[in-house]
Specification:
single chain, 432 residues, alpha/beta, Aspartate Aminotransferase, domain 2, Aspartate Aminotransferase, domain 1, 2 domains, seven-stranded mixed beta sheet, four-stranded antiparallel beta sheet, 17 helices, 12% strand
Length: 432
């Protein structure tokens, strides 16, 4: 290739847009943009970032390879990346009022993995909430690393209240003497008594880990109890109601534990982190430090409680009778519905959510007897109490159709979808 041809190829490489180089991919992305504009998502992990956060995520730092920590990198040219990571760490510490933060985990699961490997040896015993009671797969599911390399004992909930059975937990802790007790999870909707759990851990000499992924934004804003100073380690994701990009976060108030956790992430369970994600997290954490974020977090909680109350009034069973988080869990067993069927019908109506196990669920995880809803994304779009009343009513309309008019479900889905699209059009995202 001649020098001129090479120069032209290089210019094309840096200037040609996706629609020209890969129209199939551009088409798929455009369809997804269209879907997200027209639907109102009640998926619990779902949220959007600000335009500023997206700008950081798409910046030139994404082409940088980094390993190690600020001031101790394994590549040259890291000065600006050190500034970026230090901003993210310092803002996270300020946000959660603690003395250590690691912003490198690629996911919440890898954050949990690092905690396991920092504090435990393979074969050590872990006490965590069972999956159907609301726990998370990275807390000890047999097919996950946490269940394959560690001995896991599960605690559950009181079948009458749906709340954590603290007496059972205490008995199991005294019997099995775990080295790590985990609280938090993916579908437990109530606040946890962190102080009570710490007392149990102190009695048996165990570490306490709080996984706050689904309500971290509420903790940061002060509208949900903080796990500090009670827990030894806190993990979280950085999307959901923190409104950052996807990824994990590890926090502690103990600098000595922090050094172990740093080593567990790198070189323990990860190589280089993703600098564009760290830059975007720093922006999101900065936004969460602003006073407006408190109003947002309170609205997330208010919207979740409104969603649950409307569904309850329409005759649907809400696990624990309410929520202290963005999560609303609906038990469909009394109506003879399964979660997979309800999830599919709601998505057809423009309201994505997800099927989920409920306490004592007889169904397998691919079917389930419940639905999990979350209000972080619709709150970011601007929906507040009046709109949540409408949206909750539309959810109930679809479920009612499945129960009482199964032969007319397609028509009901279409009617609801029209109303959802009209409501969504009043709260657009990322307007050009």
């Amino acid at each position: 290739m001649s020098t001129r041809a090479a120069r032209e190829a290089t210019t094309a490489f840096f200037t040609t847009e996706l629609s020209e180089t890969d129209p199939l991919m551009r088409g798929a992305i455009e369809r997804e943009e269209h879907r997200q504009q027209r639907q109102l998502e009640l998926l619990a992990p779902k949220n959007y970032t600000s335009r500023a956060t997206r700008e950081a995520f798409r910046s030139i730092v994404s082409f940088t390879t980094i390993e190690g920590y600020p001031g101790k990198r394994y590549h040259a040219g890291m000065d600006n990346l050190d500034v970026i990571e230090n901003l993210a760490r310092d803002r996270a510490k300020e946000l959660f009022k603690c003395r250590y933060a690691n912003v490198q985990p690629h996911s919440g699961t890898q954050a949990n993995q690092a905690v396991f490997f920092a504090l435990l040896q393979p074969g050590d015993t872990v006490l965590s909430m069972s999956l159907d009671a609301g726990g998370h797969l990275s807390h000890g599911l047999r097919s996950n690393f946490s269940g394959r390399y560690f001995t896991v004992v599960s605690y559950g909930i009181d079948p009458e209240t749906g709340l954590i059975d603290y007496d059972q937990l205490t008995d199991l802790a005294r019997q099995h003497r775990p080295k790590l007790v985990i609280t938090g999870g993916s579908s437990y909707p109530r606040a946890v008594d962190f102080a009570r759990l710490r007392a149990v851990c102190d009695e048996i000499g165990a570490y306490l880990l709080a996984d706050i992924a689904h309500f971290a934004g509420l903790v940061a804003a002060g509208v949900h109890p903080s796990p500090f100073p009670h827990t030894h380690v806190v993990t979280s994701t950085t999307n959901k109601n923190l409104r950052g990009p996807r990824g994990g976060l590890i926090l502690t108030d103990d600098p000595e534990l922090g050094r172990k956790l740093d080593s567990a992430i790198f070189p323990g369970v990860q190589g280089g982190p993703l600098p564009e994600f760290i830059a975007a997290r720093a922006v999101a954490f900065g936004e969460a430090l602003e006073p407006a974020f408190t109003e947002y977090a309170q609205a997330v909680l208010d919207n979740a409680r409104r969603l649950g109350s409307v569904l309850q009034k329409r005759g649907y069973d809400i696990v624990t009778g309410g929520t202290d988080t963005p999560i609303v869990m609906v038990d469909l067993r009394r109506h003879g519905l399964t979660g997979d069927l309800a999830e599919r019908s709601l998505e057809n109506a423009g309201i994505p959510c997800n099927k989920n196990l409920v306490p004592g669920d007889p169904q397998k995880p691919s079917v389930t007897s419940g639905l999990r809803f979350g209000t972080s994304a619709v709150t970011t779009r601007g929906l507040r109490d009046p709109e949540l009343r409408i949206l909750a009513g539309l959810v109930a309309d679809v479920l009612d159709g499945l129960i009482h008019q199964p032969n007319h479900v397609t028509k009901i889905e279409a009617e609801v979808r029209t109303q959802v699209e009209e409501l969504a059009s009043r709260f657009p995202i990322y307007q050009h």
